[in-house]
Each structure stands twice: as structure tokens, then as C-alpha cells.
Amino acid sequence: MSGDALTDMFPQLAATLLQILSWLVGAGLLTGGALWWWQQRGASQGPPLLSGARTARDLEPPARRFLRIGLGLLWLVDGLLQAQPAMPAGFVAHTLTPGIISGPGWLVDLVQPFAQAWVHHPVAADAVTVCIELGLGLLVLLGGRGLLARSALWASVLWSAVVWVGGQFFGGLLATGASWLTGAPGAVLVYALAAALLLLRWDRWSSGDAMRLTRRAVGLWMLAAATVQALPWEGNWSGRGLSAPFEIGAHTGQPTVFLAPITVAANLAQSHPAAVNAAVLVLLVTIGTGLLFSSGSAFVAGGIIMGLATWWLAQDFGVLGGLATDPNTALPLAVVLAAGWPRWPSRARDSGPGTERQAHLGRSLPLRASLTTVGVGAVVAVPILLLGTLLGPPDASAVVADSRGGVIAVPGRLAPEFTLTDQSGTTVSMSRLRGTLTLVTFLDPVCSDDCPIIANQIAAADRALGPLARQVQIVAIDTNPIFHRVEDVEAFTRSHGLGDLRNWHFLAGPPGQLGDVLAAYSIIVQVPAVGMIAHGEGIYFVSSDGTTTTYLGDGASPALSHGYSTLIEQEIRRLLA
Question: pTM higher than 0.70, yes or no?
Fold first, then answer.
């Protein structure tokens, strides 16, 4: 993935998700209709997999019901966040790449195939992730006591582990700067905790044992967070380190009523880091110890309040910015802790006579069957059906994502003028190229990385044009202020097999003159003390009257070369039509 400019691939993602949804809904309607028909023929009960509560003894305890609904809604929120427009093109660059850069080699090797599959198939990979998380949310919300309900919870634990290791790199614990305020060790680990608690027997929830276990689990979490918060190498005792999460929220656009307290907290953390961090530590240790050894409601209330305050002030509600994959850790942890409230009633209130409740369950079975089919299809069938795509060669959406949107229209202005010398010693100027379609790109003649790939992509497109290539001129402008002679561009042309292209012009000239031309085309060049020249990459398409029409950004991924040459060829044919 290139740069920070993210491609809006939402139309492609929306079309894919709509197609998947239509399949799932169709399958759900067939299943529900079949069950309804089966009931009409005299069957009084549904399939065992869909069995729910049938007696007062089997009614779900309120605390468990609260936690189950909370976990289901959190998975739905995660699925919707994963469907944001910037997510297909931006997930690898903004979520995985920081972990890949800083992570240990064994973890990078583990994550790399997943990252590569996402880069090659951004829409399909994002669609699978969206479906799994929405499907998990739906199945958890449906509840029940059967095998399917337990399987959904185990799937939640498994998917949480996959995301925690492969998507969140252990929630940031392996990098410096881990903190309770930033959400370490990750929201998805809270999801796994919630699912594990829901897997406890219902009688343990009715007896209050599960609520005690919930309080102790959150207590241990807060004590562990306090330990991380106190570690000197995490940077939480410095103003810069402690204030970082607050400052991120302070620079996010939002209503003043939410922003003002975040700004105050950022200023306090910056000016008094030791005092603020000590206060956070005292609260974590006090509440964590209280939850671990006491059953008092005050510690539960204190933990919920601290979680919600952290979610607001330090985590900026978690979902803002367009690239969030979850609401961060503090909110889910507060939800789990609320399920451990010691004053939950032990049993749910019986809603009516057994026969009336039994009749209601019978009437709802077709709907439950339909929704269950949709959920199972989203979690199981969709990933299996798209697995072949994810393991296959790169698709067109990968090229579009890597090039920041594919070929895009640009203002129709006269292309900047130049007069330079090509690899054969011929003088070439923009004014003399009028009357033909001209491609203008920017290459370094001694580059061994992106430039040869871009040149070969253009050459492949040009050769694929056949006789139409006579109506096209290809201009590459030298970006290297050190290797700027005709001999340099001629050597590049020869070594990369471009000498047979009669319309190929790699232009060289004095450094000052080249610099003026590059600046006119908004190409920035950086000359490091060691290593290759860094410069802007892209291709301008200039019409026969000398005006710029379209632009293709970047385009140097070796795995996507064929796709780029196809994009270039298609755009040339379109402009010549």
C-alpha cells in the first residue's frame, strides 16, 4: 500500500456485501419457510440446534443475558466499523504495517501471508471480516442453550484470538507505549473474556458464582493494567508519552462539549505527568484490589465509571477517524464489569404460563431458523466460498487500492513545458509532442526498486496496443540530480529492454533544469546521505492538445504489475477512442 491517501473502495465493498447478503437472506428464507411448513404438518418442536428456554428453570439469568446482548452488539459494531469506506485500502497500511515494522520476526512471518492476501484482495478480505463479525454478533444475540449457541461463543473466542495476534499484535504489548489509556492489551481480548464467561453453566450465573468470577477477572485485568502503566520504559511517566492518547482525541473533529474535557486532560498530562499517572495507578490498584477481594457494589460502580471516563477522555470513544476496528478496550471492559454487578436478580421473571410461552417459542422458531442460517452462513460459508479468491492471484481492486484510486481525472490544464534530451540524443519538448497522446512519468535511471517496474508496466501496455502505439508518446523525466546525463538514461533504457520502443523518451538534462520541470509537475525529490533517491511516482496522461486529462498514482508493486499495465492500456484506448 502506498502513501496516506486512502482509496474509497466502498462502492465495490457495498456491492460485494449486498450480493453476499442476498445469498444469505435467500438461504435464511428457505430455511425458515421449510421449518414453518414442517410445523404446519403437525411438528410441535423445532430442531434441537434451535432449542431455547422452555421452562422457568431454563430462563436465562439476567446478568448473563445482559453480557450476551452486550457482546453481540459489540461484534455488530465491529463488523460495521470494518465496512467503513477507508478500511479495504487502509487496513494494512494503518493497522497491520505499524505492527509488522515493530514486531518480532516470528510474528511478522505469521502475519505476512494474511497481510499479503489483504493487499492482493482488499475488497474480498474486508468482506470476509465484515461477515464473520456481523455473523458472530447475530448468533450471540440469538442466544439459546443448544450446541449452536455454544459454538457461536467458542467461535467468538477463536476469532478474538486470531484478531488479537494477527490484527492487533498482542494488543500493543510488544511495542513501547502500552498503557491502560491506549487500551492495551486490546478490546478483542475483552470479547474473548466475555465469551468465556458466557460459556459457564447457567446455574453458576443463577447462584452468583459467575458474577463473582467476572468481578475477579476484571480486577486482575485492572491490576495488570496498573503494572503496565507503572513500567518506566512504557513512557507513561513523561508528559509526551502520557498525553499522547489525549492529544490524538483533541485533534479529532467533534462537538466542543466532548472535546473540551479531552483538551483539559491532555494539558494536565503534559504539564503534570507524574501526578496524573500516579492518580491513574492509584485508581487502578484500588478498584482492581476491591474487585478481587470484595463483593461491594462501590468497586463495581467505580470500575464502570473509570472505564467510561477512559473511553471518553483517553480513547475518544474508540470509533472516530474512519479506520477504527473496534470501540477500544474501556467500553467493553465496562460492559463485562456491569455483568458482575452483585445485585443482579438470580433468575429472570417468568413471563407467563408454560403453555403460552411454549406457543410463543413455536411461532418464533421459523424466524430464529432464518436468522441462524444467515449467521452461520456469514461465519462459516462466506469465508469458505471466498477462500479460493483470497489465495488466488491479485485482483483489480488491489491495483486500484495501491494506486490511490486507479486512474483519476485531473484539471484540464496545459502540461508544463520542457525541452530536454532523450536517450538517443534527440531534443524533445512538450510543445513538439502535441498531436499525440503523451504519457509523462518520472524515473531514476539508477533505481533498482520501483522505477524499473513502472517502466516495464508502461512498456507492456504500449506493446499491447499494437498499431495504436503509433499515436502515443512515452516520456520519462530523470529525477536523479546526480545521474542526469544522456549516458545514464541510455543505460537504463538498454538494460531494461526498452530500446525497441520507438515512442520511448527518457529525458535527461542539467540538474537545475530538471528540478524546474519536476517542480512544475509537483514531483518532490529527496536525496538521502545513503541509499537511493526518493521521489514522487505516477503517470500523467496528456491529450493531443497538450492538456492534462488523467493521472495514475504510484503503481510499483511487483505482484500487481500486470494489473497496472492493464489499467494503463485501458486508459490509453479510452482516450484515443
Answer: yes
CB 427 within 8 A of CB 531: no
- DSSP assignment, residue 416? P
Count Cβ atoms below 10 Å from residue 154 Cβ, excluding itself: 12
CATH 3.40.50.970 fits 407-576, yes or no: no
The 8-class DSSP code of residue 61 comes to P
- Which uninterrupted H or E stretch holds 477? strand 472-478
Alpha carbon distances (Å) from 112 to 99, 246, 256: 11, 31, 41
Closest CA to 60 of 366, 359, 357: 357
Please report, for residues 204, 216, 221, the alpha-carbon distance to residue 295 in angstroms, rounded to integers and kept in the order given: 16, 9, 17
| pLDDT < 70 positions in the chain | 1-7, 42-58, 349-363
Contact 128, 396 (CB under 8 A): no
SS3 3: coil
Residue given cell 465484515 in the structure block: 130
- Picking from 456, 453, 400, the residue whose alpha carbon sits closest to that of residue 119 is 400
5 three-state secondary structure: coil
Question: Which tens digit of pLDDT belongs to each residue from 193-228?
Answer: 999 999 999 999 999 999 999 999 999 999 999 999
The domain ranges of the chain are 10-391, 407-576
